[in-house]
Amino acid sequence: MEHPKLYKGIEYVQLKELPEDQQQKITQSLSRELFIKILIDGQLHQDCILYKDYKQWFENVYSAPATREQPAPEPSPATVTSLNVSIAKS
Question: Cβ(50)–Cβ(12) under 8 Å?
């Protein structure tokens, strides 16, 4: 997990500074509404995410174990029981 940057009390991460796999996955899974723009020294950074949102995504989406379907259990062999019935006629 990346460490946050701090600008005027805002903790954030910048998308272009994340590892490539995180960049791809975060853009596929996060709503564009969570991206923020920060104006720093006259430069507009449009690919920023609040650190709290990044941390939540990292812990719950990126680092979450992939859910795999468990294979169906092998059916157990049927047990065959013989039953001998004698009917006596009177």
Answer: yes
Strands, sheet with 10-14, edge to edge from the N-terminal-most edge strand? 5-7, 10-14, 43-50, 35-40
The range of the structural domain enclosing residue 21 comes to 5-62
Model-level pTM?
Answer: 0.68
Q: What are 33-59's pLDDT values in tens digits?
A: 999 999 999 999 999 999 999 999 999
Q: Is residue 75 part of a domain?
A: no
- Residue 57 domain flag: yes
- Within a domain: 74: no
**Structure-token match 């975060």, residue found:** 26
Residues of the chain with pLDDT under 70: 66-90
The alpha carbon torsion through 31, 36, 37, 40 (nearest 10 deg) reads -140
Residues 46, 71: Cα–Cα separation, whole Å: 44
Query: Across the strands, what pairs with 7?
Result: 10
